[in-house]
Amino acid sequence: MSERPVSPPGFCLWFTGLPSAGKTTLAKAVTPLLEERGYRVELLDGDEVRLGLSADLGFDRASRETHARRVTFVAKVLARNGIIPIVALISPYRSSRAKARQEIGAFVEVYVTTPLEICEQRDVKGLYKKARAGEIKEMTGIDDPYEPPEKPELLVDTRSQGPAEAAKELIGGLERLGWLSPRRA
Ligand SMILES: Nc1ncnc2c1ncn2[C@@H]1O[C@H](COP(=O)(O)OP(=O)(O)O)[C@@H](O)[C@H]1O
Ligand SMILES: [Mg+2]
């Protein structure tokens, strides 16, 4: 038997949900919990990727698909090197998420289930208000579709729990699914 430490298997944690559902918040809350277990983590936040790699894209269907495809590629490369990509991306289309799953393989889809009404109350970036006022178009949940996952590995209800609690529960879910080994005492 080899004495070499085995690097933990990489997998992708992919958060999907409406704008203001809590994807970014949860991704940030779960990051230190994985890091303290010795995992290397890279956060791929849709908004951040749009500042660089996807700066050329808009919000029409083709652009959203391209955006998801780029994020998928980066996530795949990270995951196969044992780094856990945590993706926080609206990723409104089932087909894009299915392609991500197929390409990355080790894929954990986390559906942040916050309903539109609550997301709209939160309106973290003020975009729902702008969309309702007709100032912006192609707003997911308003005049652009969001296709909820049919069989996500994990669900988060951000109405019944805060981010810290939800992040802990996600770690428990990852253990249950066998992606993380239970913590040694
Ligand atoms: N359990 C929870 N998980 C995540 N966010 C929550 C939760 N409860 C309340 N919130 C709040 O909801 C908002 C979610 O914003 P954000 O994470 O930026 O959403 P998204 O990235 O999905 O657009 C934040 O203001 C956050 O504090
Ligand atoms: Mg976000």
List keywords for this structure.
single chain, 185 residues, alpha/beta, Rossmann fold, 5-stranded parallel sheet, 7 helices, 42% helix, 14% strand, globular, binds adenosine-5'-diphosphate, binds magnesium ion
In brief, what are we looking at here?
The protein is an alpha/beta fold.
Write up this protein:
There is one protein chain. The protein has 185 residues and is α/β, with parallel strands linked by helices. The chain has one domain: P-loop containing nucleotide triphosphate hydrolases (Rossmann fold). The protein contains 7 helices and 5 strands. Strands 2-3-1-4-5 form a 5-stranded parallel sheet, sandwiched between helices. Helix 3 packs parallel to helix 4. The two termini are 25 Å apart. Magnesium ion binds next to helix 1. Magnesium ion binds at residues 23-24, 45, 47, 88.
Which small molecules are bound?
adenosine-5'-diphosphate, magnesium ion
User: Which residues form runs of ≥5 with pLDDT under 50?
Assistant: none
Named CATH architecture: 3-Layer(aba) Sandwich
- Helix-strand category: alpha/beta
Largest sheet: 5 strands, parallel
Distance between the termini: 25 Å
**Whole-number average pLDDT?**
94
User: Helical region count?
Assistant: 7
Element-level helix/strand string = EHEHHEHEHHEH
Using the alpha-carbon principal axes, give the shape: globular
Q: Approximately how much beta-strand content do the residues carry?
A: 5-15%
Beta strand count: 5
CATH fold topology: Rossmann fold
> What would CATH call the class?
Alpha Beta
The percent of residues in helical segments reads 40-55%
Question: Which strand order spans the largest sheet, edge to edge or round the barrel?
Answer: 2-3-1-4-5
CATH superfamily: P-loop containing nucleotide triphosphate hydrolases
Rg over alpha carbons: 17 Å
Give the count of structural domains. 1
